[in-house]
Amino acid sequence: MQSNKQAQREEIEVDLLCEGIFRHYGFDFRQYARGSLKRRIKNLMDLEGLATISALQELVLHDKQMMERFILNLSINVTAMFRDPGMFAAFRKEVVPLLKTYPSIRIWHAGCASGEEAFSMAILLEEEGLLGKSKIYATDINEVMIKKAKTGIFPMEVVPEYTGNYQKAGGSQSFSHYYTAKYDYARLRPELLKHIVFSKHNLVTDHSFNEFNVIFCRNVMIYFNSQLQSQVHQLMYDSLYRFGILVLGTKESVQFTGQQASYKELDHTFRIYQRCS
């Protein structure tokens, strides 16, 4: 069990690590939820065989590849196609009729990891006859994940799970219609991928880069402290057209934010909101 002095020293080390990364690389982890941040730091220390956070800091500041591993470890990469299929079913019911009234559609998936949520949206829009007038922007802080997402490749071993999710989400085709299989991997059809733009974007330090009809920011802000959550909520609000749609994770909400009065709740279970002012 840690002594008070050890705990205090560890807090100082975490502060110095985050400050050093911010000043040297421009990535700002200083307002991430402390418990989650420390767990991920310690996990990386175990993987690298390091005894102290200070030792990790030295490597991170002097070795760019170590910094890339740090980012990869801190990024939230748990994803699947049509993950939370009920959300996609609700999206079809509540949001698609609105999108059908627009001449063009821009959708932003913030924190896209390896791209499965954006792949899913491309399939949904294709089935609803909307993909031809849509552009999907998928962004993440993690360049390794962005590079992987651009390939549109996923392992065949996950296809049964993805197929089940797709069916529960209201899919109208055979899921195999949307990919080609080769050996142990599947690749999303190129005509779906061409409607997705993958790029690096840091929700903490970067600004709004467009206006959108829909923004997905699911299961990202739970890892931020309240101040950073407030900052990102403002970014989402500034990036939405009036009557645009914001989709959060099931443990996230616009309640008690500065923008709460500007949204109408369309689906409570799956946290789908419409900006109304």
TrEMBL record:
Lineage top rank: taxon: Bacteria
Lineage, opening ranks: Bacteria, Pseudomonadati, Pseudomonadota, Gammaproteobacteria, Alteromonadales
SUPFAM superfamilies per UniProt: Chemotaxis receptor methyltransferase CheR, N-terminal domain, S-adenosyl-L-methionine-dependent methyltransferases
SMART domains assigned: MeTrc
Protein name: Protein-glutamate O-methyltransferase CheR
Entries under Pfam families matching the protein: CheR (PF01739), CheR_N (PF03705)
Gene3D superfamilies (alphabetical): Vaccinia Virus protein VP39
Domain CheR-type methyltransferase span(s) in chain numbering: 2-276
